[in-house]
Amino acid sequence: MPAASGEQGVREQVSRMDPAGADPCCPSPTEGEAPPPQGLFPTSCNMAARAPPPRALAPPPVPTETAGKEQVKMELENASLWKQFSAVGTEMIITKKGRRMFPGLSVKLSGLNPALRYILLLDIVPLDSSRYRFQGDAWQTVGEAEARLPDRVFIHPDSPATGAHWLGRSVAFHRAKLTNHTLDSQGHIILHSLHRYQPRLHIMEARDMLRWGGAQHSFSFPETQFLTVTAYQNPRITELKIRSNPFAKGFREDGRNCKK
DNA sequence: TCGACTCGCACTTTTGAATCGG
DNA sequence: ACCGATTCAAAAGTGCGAGTCG
């Protein structure tokens, strides 16, 4: 299946950590996108104020002299599935214990330096400042969004790995979990229910897990935007999920658990 | 009263340890 | 002793529906 081209449906921002500049743990918002209310990574104060998730670290920067000379590209592998959901209005269940995303984010990378090491990150940012409700047959805004929660990132379990490792294989973030538990200690990404979000993927040069720095590439795919819910609102989304998700096989018409 | 949320259920897939044979 | 393939049980991931909460 041909994946979406690097130019189609992909927005990339490339930024560079300034070794001697502003707070390296909180890079200023990248250009070309509405600046999120908070930086990509929590401030050290934020990190100290809450229990750190197992793989969500705020490492010190590493000055690097090697910038990506070739253009780094990221393609969404399962873009067609995402587009099916997006056409209906993607909903993601969030639970207290954490729920995986479906569809999951699966991408292919190109343009990385095979010899350099990289860390791949996923974070999810609010799309707007509204709260939503499913009324009639559509989502409508019903008021102001709740206060933004502390940012958390999901670090791909293979990180850090060389460019050679990431190139030519599909990189899946299906283990990332979403929760509505504001005091979550499992490192899941905390979101508000009934809000709209945009997942973002980041590639960072790194020598190891504790020394990040150098060029940073950020990508977002419009078709991966979603609304968070604690129970599906749109029956068409339920139908699509049951049809597409192997774990929900039991609810298909030929399954024993299907409702008549 | 109503909408949002939680929890347990029955089902499926995934994962990893144990076992077996070459 | 080692390694790869197979088996199997436990863990994890699904949506549903009833019950709870504010």
Automatic annotation (TrEMBL):
Assigned GO CC terms: chromatin; nucleus
Major site of localization recorded for this protein: nucleus
A biological process from GO: cell fate specification
SUPFAM superfamilies: p53-like transcription factors (SSF49417)
Gene3D superfamilies: Transcription factor, T-box
Comp. bias intervals (Pro residues): 51-63
Keyword Nucleotide-binding set for record: no
T-box domain segment(s): 76-253
Alphabetized GO MF terms: DNA-binding transcription factor activity, RNA polymerase II-specific; RNA polymerase II cis-regulatory region sequence-specific DNA binding
Subcellular location: Nucleus
Keywords: DNA-binding, Nucleus, Transcription, Transcription regulation
Domain of life: Eukaryota
InterPro entries: p53-like_TF_DNA-bd_sf, T-box_DNA-bd, T-box_sf, TF_T-box, TF_T-box_CS
PROSITE patterns to which the protein is assigned, alphabetical: TBOX_1 (PS01283), TBOX_2 (PS01264), TBOX_3 (PS50252)
Pfam families tied to this protein: T-box
Region (Disordered): 1-68
Descriptive protein name: T-box transcription factor 6
Annotated source species: Gadus morhua
